[in-house]
Amino acid sequence: MRIPFIAGNWKMYKTSAEAAAFAVAFKELYHDTDVKAAICAPFTQLETLVKAFEGTGIGVGAQNVHFEKEGAYTGEISAGMLQEIGVDYCIVGHSERRQYFGETDETVNCKLKTLLPTGIIPILCVGEVLEEREAGREQEVVRSQVMKAFEGIEGTDAEKVVIAYEPVWAIGTGRTASPQQANDMCGFIRTVLEDLYDDVISDRVVIQYGGSVKPENATEIMNMEEIDGALVGGASLDALKFSEIINF
């Protein structure tokens, strides 16, 4: 049985002081729920949030990781460093990382392989751009991203990965894939996993939708059969709005 999982992606917002204030407010709002929740924050806020959320069941995630254990990689952070802090999750392959920082399907695969042995759960982002959607290539693109991401990863590890389907054209644009479009793609991703592994493993993988998720549309999105959760951007910066999404 897959438990719904809703994660916030703060991107490059909030100071550590602001993160601490958010944690105080959010802890008051997060209770009596069957939904898993996590905040994926900038590196400088992770330790603050880990301490603030201790014992609450609220997870903490990083937004990126380097695929090497250590080395001359100025400005990068290793999986071991995140593990030492106590991070639960790490976003991998977000479209903004692909667009602005040269992230590729190959580096995504390396990052999954680096994270999995540490126990940090990867949140793997996949999704098509508008031109690919309009050309009818969305399934081809997403299938390729999933296949390359999981190359060389055993099924027992694959089932631990959370997949976030984020159509690039719906991230931060105010546009949202219709609930049916999101549901269809999440279902398609599950069939790709079944082709890669088997139906048992594919059925265990949590598949989120991300792209302008907010309190006003969360219920309709989360009630779709193939959608197990959400990766929330801007709305996760506000403790009340994020709690409203979780209490869909």
Keywords:
248 residues; 12 helices; single chain; eight-stranded parallel beta barrel; TIM Barrel; alpha/beta; 44% helix
* Total DSSP E strands: 8
Order of helices and strands: EHEHEHEHHEHHHEHHEHEH
Shape, principal axes of CA atoms: globular
Largest sheet: 8 strands, parallel, barrel
Mean pLDDT: 96
Question: What fraction of the residues are assigned to beta strands by DSSP?
Answer: 5-15%
Distance between the termini: 19 Å
> Could you say how many structural domains there are in total?
1
CATH superfamily: Aldolase class I
Sheet/helix structural class: alpha/beta
CATH topology name, in short, is TIM Barrel
Structure annotation, total helices: 12
Can you give the helix content as a percent range? 40-55%
> Widest sheet: strand order?
1-2-3-4-5-6-7-8
CATH class bucket: Alpha Beta
CATH architecture: Alpha-Beta Barrel
Describe the structure.
The protein has 248 residues and is an alpha/beta fold. It has a single domain (37-48, 58-246), classed as TIM Barrel (Alpha-Beta Barrel). The protein has twelve helices and eight strands. The chain has helices at 16-29, 43-52, 79-85, 95-101, 105-115, 130-134, 138-149, 155-158, 179-196, 199-204, 215-222, 239-246, and strands spanning 5-9, 36-40, 59-62, 89-92, 121-126, 162-165, 207-210, 229-232. An eight-stranded parallel barrel has the order 1-2-3-4-5-6-7-8, surrounded by six helices. Strand 1 (5-9), helix 1 and strand 2 (36-40) form a beta-alpha-beta unit. It is globular. The two termini are 19 Å apart.
